Amino acid sequence: MSSELPSDRGIAATIGELDAASDEEVLRAGMDRARAAFGVEVTRTPALTLAAAWSEVLRHGVAAAVRLCAGVDPSDWAWFVSGSVARGEAAPGSDVETMIVLSDSVDDAGKADLLARAAEVHATLELCGIRGDANGVLASRPRFCRRLGSWAEGIDRWASQPGADRGVVMTGLMADSTGGWGAMDLAEDELRVATVAAARRNYPVRQAMLQDATAIRATLPSRLRMFATHADAVDVKLAAIDPVVKIARWSGLSAGSDHLSTLQRLDDAAAANVLDAEDVSILHDCFTWLVRFRWRVRAGAFADSPYDTRSPVNDVVSLSATAPQERAMLRSVVREVTGISRKLTYLASTSAFR
Question: How many domains is the chain partitioned into structurally?
Answer without folding.
Answer: 1
